[in-house]
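step: validate -> pass
step: tokenize input -> pass
step: predict -> running
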Amino acid sequence: MNIIGMMAMYDEPEIHIKRSVRGLARLGVSKLVVADGAYALLPDGSPTSPPEQICVLREQCVARRIALHLHQPTEVWAGNEVEKRQKMLDLAYDVSYDGDWLAIWDCDYRLVSPPPVAEIAESLRSTSCDVATIAFTEDPTAVHGLDFYPMGMLLRAQRGIRMGGNHHTYLFPDGRQTQVLRRPVLHGAEALHLPDVRVLHAVHARDPERRARQAAYYCERDALGVES
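step: predict -> pass
step: emit ->
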């Protein structure tokens, strides 16, 4: 069984790349699919990250013995988040086998205090569920379990899983769906809970200029109603 990371990336600080890949390795990821490039609605975006950041990504994957599958588009993502995440799903299918799992990941995620890799793998291998939740927070001061909330970030690899009308809805071929939200919404999809796998979304670690561009993107996305 493999755990395949699916990481969205664009113009990331070196420290984010290093921490993110290190966290994925501690999660047990052996293959990493990365989709580079800016969303079309992100101000001043470009199709690819600076070459030096890609070098850091490659070096970190080699050091952690993670097989990297990198996609760099020739244009920004016209379909924004949904199109980019769908591309990661498509790429992950091409390198997955029956029994593998997919880990939904962003470059500013940090894995904190994970259980042993073998324990995570055995939990995924032995469950009949197709979704697994981890403990998630955006609070850098979070310490106790109550400071985290469940997030359905692990999906059993199945050809035909696709994005819904927004960036947080994943649709299974048989009609079940899960939404990767603050509280996971599961429609017919039972979930395995992994509360000891804790992830910090380091949203406040980006520089003010990047946060301003990100805020402008969300404002434009919502104003145009590009997600349902």
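step: describe -> Residues 137 and 148 are 5 Å apart (CA to CA).
step: cleanup -> pass
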